[in-house]
């Protein structure tokens, strides 16, 4: 049974069990002292041991995130983006909190403040990163917390899947503007994105040793979902790759991801297409495959989608085209 008493202006909680060293801690309020004692007793009933809460009391969220960034993040394929995300989180006042003082109210306030300037998907990724870092500290770094407060915080609703497709002469306008621009790789990149449904990262990582123009297949050794796949090449895709092949480089495209992003944004502004993302070309490619009569399994093997639910987000068939088949 815990003992709560007022000592020298503060509230002291003490938990004692026979055969174990007693644990005590002082708090500014009686409520906090009682909460700490209840948590300790619940853990004692569950495990039979009194956990050492001192590491959590002396460790800040910034220290946990820094350790996670330096040890865990580099082992991931998404290490670059996750490290950048953690570095951004570390600049927030939230990170000065010790783990025992980190509350759901703190995290909810962080969520609401960030929602004013970034998209819900960004907040979800940030909260998930914090949550995984805290879980890692609990499981592997001997830092006791009764629960992970991140798991109790409501995530904002993720955005609905985009339904944007190329309309009218938009594809021709993009290609014509790319021909007039100063970035030679932009037109073939657009053509291959529309013809193959590859992601931007997959196109930029594609090497000539994995392109077989005779068999009309491009091999991707490692994709976003961690597996490899072979992408069949249309006649137009083969023609585009044939024009690109000069024998001077290892990769099909030697551009950096950020350079491609900036080039695309400039092209989009010149053409006047405000609501068109480069990733929308993948939507377009997948939808065209269905319109050509490929079934779900065939499209999934080309696009690399593992779940039908995710594939449906990329598949937006035009009602007018479907109506023609109903005649």
| CATH class identity of the largest domain | Mainly Alpha
Radius of gyration: 27 Å
Q: What is the β-strand count?
A: 6
CATH architecture of the largest domain: Orthogonal Bundle
What is the terminal separation in angstroms?
A: 78 Å
The quaternary organization reads as single chain
The CATH homologous superfamily of the largest domain is termed: Intergrase catalytic core
The total domain count is: 3
Helicity, as a percent range: 40-55%
Kindly identify the CATH topology of the largest domain. hpI Integrase, Chain A
What profile does the largest beta sheet have? 3 strands, antiparallel
Q: Could you name the ranges where pLDDT drops below 50 across 5 or more consecutive residues?
A: none
Measured by DSSP, the beta-strand proportion falls in 5-15%
Strand-pairing-aware structural class? mainly alpha
H/E element order: EEEHHHHHHHHHEEEHHHHHH
Please state the average pLDDT score: 87
Ordered list of secondary-structure elements with their pairings:
Blueprint: E1 3-7, E2 10-15, E3 23-27, H1 30-47, H2 54-58, H3 61-71, H4 79-89, H5 104-114, H6 120-140, H7 170-180, H8 186-196, H9 200-205, E4 211-212, E5 217-220, E6 229-232, H10 235-244, H11 257-271, H12 280-291, H13 296-303, H14 308-314, H15 319-325
Antiparallel strand pairs: 1-2, 2-3, 4-5, 5-6
Helix pairs in contact: 3-4, 3-6, 7-8, 7-11, 8-10, 8-12
């Amino acid at each position: 049974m815990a003992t709560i008493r007022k000592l020298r202006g503060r509230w002291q909680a003490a938990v004692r069990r026979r055969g174990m060293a007693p644990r005590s801690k002082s708090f500014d309020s009686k409520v906090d002292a009682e909460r700490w004692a209840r948590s300790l007793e619940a853990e004692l009933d569950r495990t039979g041991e009194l956990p050492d809460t001192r590491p959590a009391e002396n460790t800040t969220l910034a220290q946990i995130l820094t350790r996670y960034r330096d040890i865990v993040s580099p082992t991931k394929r998404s290490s670059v983006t996750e490290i950048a995300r953690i570095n951004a989180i570390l600049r927030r006042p939230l990170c000065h909190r010790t783990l025992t003082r980190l509350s759901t109210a703190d995290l909810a306030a962080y969520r609401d403040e960030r929602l004013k300037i970034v998209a819900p998907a960004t907040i979800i990724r940030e909260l998930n990163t914090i949550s995984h870092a805290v879980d890692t500290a609990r499981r592997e770094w001997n830092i006791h917390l009764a629960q992970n407060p991140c798991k109790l915080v409501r995530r904002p609703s993720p955005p609905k899947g985009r339904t944007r497709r190329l309309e009218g002469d938009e594809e021709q306008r993009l290609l014509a503007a790319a021909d007039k621009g100063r970035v030679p790789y932009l037109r073939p990149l657009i053509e291959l994105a529309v013809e193959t449904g590859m992601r931007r990262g997959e196109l930029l990582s594609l090497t000539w040793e994995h392109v077989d123009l005779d068999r009309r297949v491009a091999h991707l050794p490692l994709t976003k979902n961690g597996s490899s796949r072979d992408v069949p090449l249309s006649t137009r895709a083969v023609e585009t790759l044939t024009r690109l092949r000069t024998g001077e480089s290892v990769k099909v495209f030697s551009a950096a991801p950020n350079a491609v992003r900036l080039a695309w944004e400039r092209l989009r502004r010149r053409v006047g297409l405000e609501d068109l993302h480069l990733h929308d070309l993948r939507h377009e490619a997948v939808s065209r495959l269905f319109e050509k009569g490929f079934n779900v399994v065939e499209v999934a093997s080309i696009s690399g989608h593992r779940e039908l639910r995710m594939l449906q987000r990329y598949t937006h068939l035009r009602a007018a085209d479907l109506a023609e088949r109903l005649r």
